[in-house]
Amino acid sequence: MNSEMGSNVQTIDIGSPRTESKSNYVREVFENAPHYLRTRQVDIRFRLEVVRTLADTVKWRRLLDIGCGDGSISLQLLTSASYLTLMDLSASMVALAKKNVSEDLAANVVIRNENFIAASFDAEPYDLVVAVGVMAHVDSPDAFLAKIKSLLRPGGNLIVEFTDSRHFVGRLGRLWGNVKEVVAPAKYPTNKLSFSDVALLFKKHDLRLVSAFRYARIPLPGIDRIMSHEMQYKLAQLLFGGSSNNRNSRFGNEYICLLTND
């Protein structure tokens, strides 16, 4: 991908924060884009692979990526016959996404530095919405899914990722997180969701679950200091398989789901 953004990319910048919700704190955390991208390499690699596989199973022309980060997850799907809207609260993430847009596809991309819940959209629905790494950080998962539902065409699809915090692996992660927060309190509380919580929201909004890929990171404190991300990814892939052959899913607390808008 080019290091310079194509001149035809449309960019929308909201400037200063306008809401009283925790989105301002979320924005502050994700402004340190290099740190997030460096520390979440295992998750990013699974997301890249699984989202690509799931998107290849459905028909779409217009795609909205909410919480797009550096854009790599959705930009890999873009063709000259499709259109992509990248949206993120973080100006730092949006800047990286701009750099990752290839010049020959710049006219097919709109980048929005906005809060999804507060944003306005035109009347044309999306065929596919991608939202990975977002559900834990929104004010209301219910309102979040309701707005996604309103933007999807009938029969359109949603690819969404979330962490089951009540899974035993998730509980281990929460325990270690609570210990760390004694020393360095979190800037805001994340949503502690379970699969059953999210499944009820899917049902409420008539979003039918088609498939789910599940995996887990190694739930050991300080694992990044003793094992490279490459090794962690290979071990997780050995246990959980790839996007087309998920195995041992009961041990996975990270869900990447494909849903249809019925």
Descriptive account of the structure:
By secondary structure, this protein is an alpha/beta fold. The chain has a single domain (10-261), classed as Vaccinia Virus protein VP39 (Rossmann fold, 3-Layer(aba) Sandwich). It contains ten helices and eight strands. It has helices at 23-30, 33-39, 41-55, 72-75, 91-100, 141-151, 168-183, 195-204, 223-226, 229-240, and strands at 10-13, 62-66, 83-87, 109-113, 126-131, 152-163, 207-215, 254-261. It has an eight-stranded mixed β-sheet, with helices on both faces. Strand 5, helix 6 (141-151) and strand 6 (152-163) form a beta-alpha-beta unit. Helix 3 packs across helix 10. The longest helix has 16 residues, at 168-183. The model is unreliable at 1-7 and 13-20 (pLDDT under 50).
Topology:
Elements: E1 10-13, H1 23-30, H2 33-39, H3 41-55, E2 62-66, H4 72-75, E3 83-87, H5 91-100, E4 109-113, E5 126-131, H6 141-151, E6 152-163, H7 168-183, H8 195-204, E7 207-215, H9 223-226, H10 229-240, E8 254-261
Parallel strand pairs: 1-4, 2-3, 2-5, 3-4, 5-6
Antiparallel strand pairs: 6-8, 7-8
Helix pairs in contact: 3-10
